[in-house]
Backbone:
């Protein structure tokens, strides 16, 4: 039996033929091959990856750095209601589970009631709708990555816990040339991540199987979402949460640069 082995490098790809027995081929299927970017990618699965047809991205902390605008609008709401505000960096650990959870975390102890969360939301929403693109920007390499994926025939989607209107607005603003097959944020009546509904809805639209999907995100919530959906999880280190969180939630891959996604699909 002839097994074709590909060796990937930064700027080249070579092929060579290897004579291999059926038993050797079987054993080879359980090896992990290091992708082209070397130590930038950590593999946690032990089988050769399936060809991915669909890549689903989280938005905040993965495609876009939105933390300053989220922090500024939340602080605006807190200040209007007479509550203490927080440093921008503190919001890295408040976001990720939808805006209501953000407001609950931002409120001081003893004030985390449903009524107060609703009051903060009422002040936050009109401010954020006007200012959600003041300082938000794509992370380095993201526009180029999305373009390469699209040109390579891959389907691309967004699955976010940000409310739907803001998710769609930001995607339209920063990635107008990308034809996403779905852009889903937090929708009325749909559970937020890590509930798998948002991902499963995208899989239905794309008409793909879970093994044909890579989910890319920056937090434990994202890694849980991928696991709950039965798809491969790729954690990114440039977002809001530390590498240790991605490791704790058993990401299949951990990458340091946007372009490294290409080696996984």
Residues:
């Amino acid at each position: 039996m002839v097994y074709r082995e590909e060796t990937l490098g930064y700027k080249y790809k070579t092929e060579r033929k290897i004579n291999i027995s059926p038993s050797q081929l079987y054993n080879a299927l359980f090896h992990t091959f290091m992708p082209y970017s070397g130590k930038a990618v950590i593999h946690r699965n032990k089988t050769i990856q399936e060809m991915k047809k669909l890549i689903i991205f989280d938005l905040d902390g993965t495609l876009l750095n939105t933390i300053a605008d989220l922090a500024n609008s939340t602080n605006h709401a807190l200040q209007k209601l007479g509550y203490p505000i927080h440093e921008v960096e503190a919001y890295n650990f408040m976001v990720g589970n939808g805006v209501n959870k953000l407001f609950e975390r931002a409120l001081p102890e003893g004030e985390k009631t449903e009524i107060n969360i609703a009051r903060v939301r009422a002040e936050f929403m009109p401010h954020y709708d006007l200012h959600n693109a003041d300082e938000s920007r794509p992370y380095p390499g993201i526009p180029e990555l999305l373009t390469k994926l699209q040109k390579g025939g891959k389907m691309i989607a967004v699955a976010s816990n940000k409310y739907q209107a803001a998710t769609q607005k930001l995607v339209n603003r920063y990635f107008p040339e990308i034809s996403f097959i779905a852009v889903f944020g937090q929708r009325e009546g749909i559970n937020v991540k890590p509930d798998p509904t948002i991902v499963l809805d995208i899989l239905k639209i794309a008409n793909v199987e879970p093994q044909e999907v890579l989910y890319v995100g920056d937090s434990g919530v994202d890694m849980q979402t991928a696991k709950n959906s039965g798809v491969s999880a790729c954690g990114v280190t440039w977002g809001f949460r530390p590498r240790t969180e991605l490791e704790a939630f058993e990401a299949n891959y951990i990458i340091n640069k946007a372009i490294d996604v290409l080696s996984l699909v």
Notes: The radius of gyration is 20 Å. The longest helix spans residues 114-131. The longest strand covers residues 155-163. The CA atoms of residues 138 and 174 lie 7 Å apart.
